[in-house]
Amino acid sequence: MKDKEYMSNLLSDINKLRKQINDLDESIVKLIAKRLEISQQIGYLKEQNEIAIYDGKREDELRQFYSKLSQVYMVDEEFIHEVFSVIIKKSRLIQMKGG
User: Fold this and answer.
1) Which of 64, 48, 58 is nearest to 88 (CA)?
2) Tag placement on the chain: N or C end, fewer CB within 10 Å?
3) Where are the alpha helices (DSSP H) in 49-76?
């Protein structure tokens, strides 16, 4: 079994890393909130100008963009598409509410 000092240092290191994750998670949530705010503005403009909420061409462009990003940052492409699928779905719902 590891000695107490080793375990204490290990737990300290783990807690520091967890703090970094918490900070990153907060940043992610703030960015999602900002993205949804922008989606709401787009929804308002679409409503005012009688433009359809769903834009298949735009969503295809986004999927290609996410594929490139996943390659650049070496993150599983399927995972990235799953994450953004949820975000896009929520953005579309916000836009349907009339901005």
Assistant:
1) 58
2) N
3) 56-72
The beta strand positions in 19-80, using DSSP E, are: none
Q: What is the mean pLDDT of the chain?
A: 95
CA distance 37 to 46: 14
pLDDT of residue 98: 61
Q: What token pair was written down for 20?
A: 């970094």
Class level of CATH domain 4-96: mainly alpha
Asked if 38 and 87 count as a contact pair (C-beta separation under 8 A), the reply is no
Quick check: 43 and 96 in contact, CB under 8 A?
yes
Domain ranges across the chain: 4-96
Hey, how many other C-beta atoms are within 10 angstroms of the C-beta on 43?
21
pLDDT digits (tens, 9 = 90+) for 21-78: 999 999 999 999 999 999 999 999 999 999 999 999 999 999 999 999 999 999 999 9
Per-residue pLDDT at 64? 98
